[in-house]
Every structure is written in C-alpha cells, then in structure tokens.
Design goal:
The protein has 686 residues and is an alpha/beta fold. 60% of the residues lie in helices and 9% in strands. The protein is built from 26 helices and ten strands.
Length: 686
C-alpha cells in the first residue's frame, strides 16, 4: 500500500480505528481522550509517518466538527444561569481579551522584534480560544456549572473582538478599511444576528410541531447550524459565531434529556469532533522543535504568553467574584486551547504579502502557532479533566449517605394504550424525571381478559417497543411490562404496587359518548386504588415547543405529602424546556412555593403570584393561558387536606374555557393508607 493513503475507504477506516482505540489506550494511561486524537493526527499526518494527507475530507469534517463544538456549547448552556452570570461572562471575556492583547503586543515587539501590525494580529491570536475541551465537561454532566457558563459567555466576547481585529487587518491590506467598511460590517452583522435570533426559533418551533420524524428533525437542526455559520461568514465574521448563536436560540427547543439532544451529541462526539481534532494534529510539525533557532524561540514565546495570559484572566475573574479554585481551573482549562480562530488568523496573516515581499506572519510564526496549538490543547484538556473530576467528587461528597438512593429514587409508570399519545407521554416523563438516573421509566400494556388475548398482546408489544425506542433515544432504559388483568385500571394499580412506581403519567380520557364523564371511569378508579402521584396530560403540541407553564395551586397544597415531589417535577420541566414557570396560589401557599423552588436542584425561572381567597374553580376560570402555554392544575383526592369541593366544576369549566389548551391535571402523592379498598367494579371495561 502506497503512502499517503488516497483510497477514501481506507482513509475512513484508519480514522475510525483512531477514534475507536485512542480513548481505550489513553484511558489506561490516564491521559484525556482529546489529546489522543491530536497526537494521533501528528503521527499519521504528513509531518509524522505520512500515512494520510490532510485532504478535503479532513477540511470538511473538521469544519463540521468545529461548528459542532460551538453549537453544542450554545445548546447545552443553562440559559437561566447564563442570564444571572452575563455580567461575569462579559468581565471574563474582556479580561481574557485585554490581558492577552497587552502581553502579546509587548512580547512581540520587545522579544521578537515584530512590527506593530504583526504584533497586534499575533496578540489577537492569543486572545481568541476554542472550546476544544468542552466534550470533557459534557461527558461529566457539568455544562450547567457557573464557571462553564461564564467561560462560554466570555468565549463569545473574546472571539468576536479577535475576529474584528482580524477583519480590520485583513481589510487594511485589501484597501477596504474606511468609514463605509465599518458601517457595512456593523449593519450586516447586526441584521444577520437579529435574523438568527428571531427567525430560527420560529422556524424550529413550527418544524418540530409539524414533523416528528427523528431523522428529519436532526437534519433540520444541522441545516440551521450551517445556515447560521454561513450567514455570519457572509457578514465578514467567522462562521463559528453563527453556529454558537444558533445553539443558544435552539436551547429552549431541545431539552437536555431528549432523543434529539442525545442524537446531536452522539453524532458530534462519535465522528465530527474527533475528525476535527485529528485534523488539528495533522497540521502540527513537531520537527520544527529540532530546527532550533528563531522557530524555537517564537514557539516558546507564543506558548508561554498564550497560557500565562489565559491563566491571569481566570485568576483575576476568580478574585473579583470570590470564586473557588476549582472554578478558576475550569475557566482556565476551557479557555486555554487555541485552534479555530487562531488557525484562521495565522493562515490569513501568512497569505498577506507586504510591500517588501515578506509575509505579514512568517514561517516561524506559522510553525510556532501549530506548536502553541499542541501545547495549549494538551494543557487545556488536562486542566479541564482535573477540574471536572474535582467538581464531580465535590458534588458526590455533598450528598449525604443514603440520600441519593432513598430521596431521589424515581420510577415513572406510563400506560401505552393509545398509540397517538405514546411519544408525548414519554417525552413528558423525560423532562420531569431526575436527569441523573438513566432508568426509572416503566412502560405498561394491559390486556383485558375479556378480549382476544393474541391480538391484544401483539398490539401491546408494538406499543411497548415504540415507547422503549423513544426513551432509549434519550439514553434512558425502559422496563417493558405486558400483563393480563380483569380491567385496565386494575392492571395499572397492581403494576404500580409490583414495580413500586412513584409516579403515574396517563393521557386525558376522550369522551366517547354524551353520557360519558370528562375523566372517564379509568382515572377515578386509579385515584381510588393508589396513593402515588398521578399526572393526567392532554398535550396539543410537542412538549419541547411550549413557551410557558402556568400552575394553579389550591389552598393548603403545601401540607400534602407529595408537595416537594410535584414542585420538583415542574421545576425540572421548566429548566429542561427553558420556559418560565408561573404559580398562582394564596398567600400562605405562595410563601412555601418560593421556598420549594429555591431548594430545587433544577435552576428555573419561576414567578409566584398571590391570588385572593376564593373557590379554587373560580380562580381557575379567571386565568389566561396562551395557546403555546401549558396549564397545570394541582388537584387533590377527595378527603385530602387541600381538597376543594369546587373541583367538581372543573370538567365543564375546562371544556368551556380551555378546550384547546395544553393541560395537565396533577394529583399529588398522598399518605399511604394501609388496607385501602379498591372500589372499582372489577368486571368493568375501564
């Protein structure tokens, strides 16, 4: 076989072998996986064993991987935490831009003897950084940490400023920098950014409501990422900013625990991002070390200045806001890697020919840049890995013994009788469950003894398999249960006891005749047969496209056993969907709700409004709920402390005022009454 390999089949095979075995080998050596990809690129590249050349496939997949890193960084951000820390992110972004610029200009002029223009461009390369180590943060589940959100916000600031400098210097040698150039740049960037911010969410919400095919949704999101990157490139800026912006505006439409998010992360981490890292390694010429002289001096100065300036920016941010040492390490680790904008700047500067025939950035700077990329990426991954482990250990140590097993245990039971509601009910369960648990969903199919057993079992198995497939796409295991019973209600109640389910999620009954009740006999029989939390849902649109959650809370709801459970579920749902949670309750209950929201492990944007004391049904009838909002009515079983007799008026009230609204009627968990009698007619077909 001739080298370098040119057959696309063998090229792809070699890359896949590297992606497969690099993490395995380096995992045993306690070396971060990302370094393995970069080192593998050095070995197989033209400056190593020359097994592969950096052809168009590496440029294409590498660009996709780079966009993917920035897109996932925006998509996985905790937007509520980002809003709270936007000032901190701006301060860190300015520090991580100004300090590298100052040190870079001083060292380039004083130590390397470069011109002012060359020094400014070189310093802007130090100022920018790439979130190469972000996959480590994502793997540890730390994307919502304060230090991570501050760093991501700072990245947007410093990369934007660095790319503006690159655009200005590039324009200087093209003769285009004048007043009209600046006006044109500002107008184009502003208009295209506004187009992304306002039009992409509208298009995404429309598409997700109209099409539920998994492949189509994935391709649609990927198309938006590159549309954002392309639009930003047309404006004269680097496309990675457009990809990052698309990730931020799609944040609300792609819940963190959802099949679509799992697919996006899987494809990026399995293929595109490793391709980008291998391609970065292939650029690096380690032999430039052996050359010594000026090349070695430039490489050392660039690496030291880039690393020191990023550490100082993280250090000053830590001191200003009194953050922990681990948070400083996280900010430094994420912000130290140089790759994307740095490569763009050095390649553009290397192509600019001055009047004296020399290049604006000579070969020594080019070689020094790739060496700087290698060392900063290595330092970045090691520091980020250490900080992530420390965060994980501190979080584990902060949980008292036994609390994780007993306090956070959840098992949500979902009957799958109606094929039309399976996907909505599973997705609802995914956004309310504890994201730390990779199981906890039980799909149930009850086969009535009075029917045809063979036909019922076949249909039930298909429904169970579909439910399991939807949950597994979000990396959540599903326990599939198919059972025979005298009626559906009895089968559900018995399964709750056998599986020790903590919650039940069912679809709202649809009236089959004029004499049929609003809830049907099924819901009433279940409520009599179990004390667990019961969620009755009617979703008119996919749960991820909701814009807000309005919750009607009865008086004395805080005294129910399941108060903390249902408040936690709604807070998680709000956090996953990135939408506002608005409670309406009487004064005493409102105070307890604020405390419960503050203690919730989910960061959510919640408001609590105080209602006047009047019958619960009257309070609900006066509520205004938009078509894209979810109305949650906290009800109660008869005889409980928060039971209000006016809830008997809910069926006609809902039919009259909220006939087309997204609706959840939630019955909180009650005290387990031993010896509870199940009064449902055992022979009735519920």
């Amino acid at each position: 076989m001739a080298f370098p390999v040119t057959d696309p089949i063998w090229i792809f095979f070699i890359v896949l072998i590297i992606i497969l075995f690099a993490p395995i080998i380096l995992g045993k050596l306690k070396i971060p996986h990302i370094i393995g990809m970069i080192l593998a690129g050095i070995v197989i590249g033209e400056h190593g064993l020359n097994i592969l050349e950096r052809d168009s496939s590496f440029e294409l997949f590498g660009q996709v991987g780079l966009y993917y890193i920035m897109f996932l960084a925006g998509l996985e951000m905790d937007m509520e935490d980002f809003r709270k820390n936007k000032v901190k992110g701006l301060v860190f972004g300015l520090l991580t831009f100004i300090i590298p610029m100052a040190l870079g200009i001083w060292t380039s002029i004083g130590l390397l003897g470069y011109s002012v223009v060359t020094s400014v461009l070189l310093a802007s390369m130090y100022a920018s950084h790439t979130l190469v180590a972000y996959p480590i943060v994502s793997r540890y589940g730390l994307s919502r940490q304060r230090s991570v959100n501050i760093t991501i916000g700072g990245t947007a600031v410093t990369v934007t400023l660095a790319l503006v400098i690159l655009a200005v210097i590039s324009g200087m040698y093209k003769g285009t920098v004048d007043g009209l150039y600046w006006i044109s740049l500002v107008v184009k960037v502003t208009l295209l950014s506004l187009a992304i911010v306002f039009l992409v969410p509208v298009a995404g919400r429309w598409f997700f409501r109209k099409y539920d095919d998994a492949v189509m949704q994935f391709i649609f999101v990927l198309a938006l990422v590159f549309l954002g990157g392309g639009l930003m490139s047309l404006a004269g800026m680097e496309g990675i900013l457009g990809a990052f912006l698309v990730g931020m505006v799609l944040n609300r439409l792609v819940p963190k625990v959802s099949p679509l998010m799992n697919r996006l992360e899987f494809v990026g981490n399995a293929l595109f991002i490793p391709y980008f890292l291998i391609g970065v390694g292939m650029i690096i010429d380690v032999r430039s070390f052996a050359a010594g002289g000026e090349a070695m001096k430039v490489a050392v100065v660039m690496t030291v200045v880039a690393t020191l300036s990023k550490w100082l920016a993280a250090f000053f941010t830590q001191k200003i806001y009194r953050m922990s040492g681990t948070e400083r390490k996280m900010m430094f680790g994420l912000s130290n890697a140089q790759a994307a904008a740095t490569l763009a700047a050095v390649l553009i500067g290397h192509e600019i020919i001055l009047e004296n025939g020399e290049r604006l950035l000579n070969d020594d700077v080019l070689n020094g840049t790739v060496i700087m990329i290698l060392f900063t990426c290595v330092i970045s991954t090691i520091e980020t890995e250490r900080a992530s482990r420390r965060f994980a250990m501190d979080e584990k140590a902060s949980v008292p013994d036994g609390q994780e097993k007993s306090g956070s245990r959840e098992k949500i039971l979902i009957p799958v009788a109606n094929p039309d509601t399976i996907e909505n009910l599973i997705n609802l369960a995914l956004v309310i469950k504890d994201p730390r648990q990779k199981d906890g969903i039980v799909a149930l199919s009850v086969i009535n003894d009075d029917g045809d057993p063979a036909s019922g079992e076949s249909v039930g198995r298909k429904s169970l398999e579909r439910a399991a497939m939807i949950a597994s796409a979000a990396d959540v295991k599903t326990d599939m249960v198919c059972r025979y019973d005298i009626n559906i209600a009895s089968g559900i109640v018995h399964t709750i006891k056998e599986k020790d389910a903590t919650d039940l999620v069912i679809g709202l009954h649809r009236k089959s005749s004029f004499l049929d009740s609003f809830f049907g006999s099924l819901t009433g029989s279940i409520l009599k047969g179990t004390c667990r939390e019961v969620i009755v849902a009617r979703l008119m649109m996919p749960v991820n496209t909701l814009k807000g959650i309005v919750v009607a809370v009865p008086a004395h709801a805080e005294f129910e056993t399941g108060f903390s459970r249902w408040t936690s579920h709604l807070c998680r749902m709000s956090a996953q969907l990135g939408c506002r949670l608005h409670f309406f309750a009487e004064e005493d209950t409102a105070s307890r709700l604020r405390d419960a929201v503050g203690k919730s492990d989910a960061r959510t944007l919640a408001d609590v409004s105080i209602d006047e004391k009047r019958p619960f049904a009257d309070r609900i009838s006066s509520m205004k709920v938009g078509d894209e909002q979810l109305l949650v009515i906290i009800s109660a079983r008869s005889g409980s402390v928060s039971y209000d007799a006016t809830v008997d008026r809910l069926p006609p009230l809902i039919s009259r005022n909220f006939a087309s609204s997204n609706l959840i009627i939630l019955y909180p968990e009650q005290v387990d009454q031993q010896g509870m009698v199940f009064f449902a007619d055992p022979r009735r077909n519920a």
